[in-house]
Amino acid sequence: QVQFVESGGGLVQPGGSLRLSCAAAGFSLNFYDIGWFRQAPGKEREGVSCIGSSDRTTYYADSVKGRFTISRDDAKNTVYLQMNSLQPSDTAVYYCVPIREPTYYYCLGDVPHGPWGQGTQVTVSS
Which of 5, 10, 20, 78 has the greatest number of C-beta atoms within 10 Å? Predict the structure, then answer.
């Protein structure tokens, strides 16, 4: 069964940085288009960013554009989300998941069925 494992979350002060990692358990991520999604308490899950498997096409939600950077390292079988200038509104559980294709709609307008991992908690607070 395809399984993704997120890590790198934590507690950080406003203005701080974190780097999230998305790893694959027992298979190669290299052929998957990957999206990062987040869910804050009481809110719906929303798309944050995504990256294509071949041409590295990327999309970002307006709320994180200029602060977050998505990347992938095929040799390490990992997709990253570098988050800078974090704000309290970024507090959420972050998930990585395969998306159908790296287009605006499938990155930010649609929430995939899964498979969803356990996510990693990001808390931005002073």
Answer: 20
Strands of the chain (E only): list them: 4-7, 10-12, 18-24, 34-39, 46-51, 58-60, 68-73, 78-83, 92-98, 120-124
Tokens representing 85 are 């200038």
Closest CA to 71 of 100, 55, 51: 51
At which residue do the structure tokens 């709609």 appear? 105
- Reference 40, options 8, 7, 85, 87; nearest CA is 87
For residue range 9-65, list pLDDT tens digits in order: 999 999 999 999 999 878 888 899 999 999 999 999 999 999 999 989 999 999 999
